[in-house]
Amino acid sequence: MALNDKNPKLSPSVTGAGHRKRLRERFLKGGLAGFRDYEIVELLLSLGTPRRDCKQQAKEAIRRFKTLRGVLAASPQELQQIEGIGPHSAFGIKLVQEVAREFLKEQIAGRPVYQSPGEIFDYLYHSMRDLKKEVFKVLYLNAQHQIIEINDLF
């Protein structure tokens, strides 16, 4: 094992910290453009798994759930069936999915006027595409076509 002279911890090449740092820097420079699905999952897993390489768990998650969307749609229990993905990492993945869903909901609900059916479709598609059961959503509009509220009835 290689030791760092300044710090008696393992060097980045042994712990994978250098790889993790490069992924984070790449994300900060250009967002998710050019990232493979497993690299995005790897970044998510690294948030809940300090000081450990997450690449194999990320690749296994993509293999099992087929796409990034499939990983995000998986339940915490399904995610934890992958060796190395614990409750903290599963929580982080589910949190990111729900934050994205809420962001889209607020983005569309916060618009002053309903712009087009395509914008509503985009929100509904994203918020409903991974559901395993049918959901009946209601969008409430006022007379000026502003979205007042969005509810799941059943």
Sequence-ordered SSE layout with sheet pairings:
Blueprint: H1 12-15, H2 17-30, H3 37-48, H4 55-65, H5 68-73, H6 76-80, H7 87-109, H8 117-128, E1 137-141, E2 147-152
Antiparallel strand pairs: 1-2
Helix pairs in contact: 3-4, 3-7, 7-8
Summarize the structure in words:
With 154 residues, the chain is mainly alpha-helical. It has a domain at 12-109: DNA polymerase, domain 1 (Orthogonal Bundle), CATH 1.10.150. The chain has helices at residues 12-15, 17-30, 37-48, 55-65, 68-73, 76-80, 87-109, 117-128; strands spanning 137-141, 147-152. It has a two-stranded antiparallel sheet. A hairpin with a 5-residue loop joins strand 1 (137-141) and strand 2 (147-152). The radius of gyration is 20 Å and the shape is elongated. Residues 1-14 have low confidence and may be disordered.
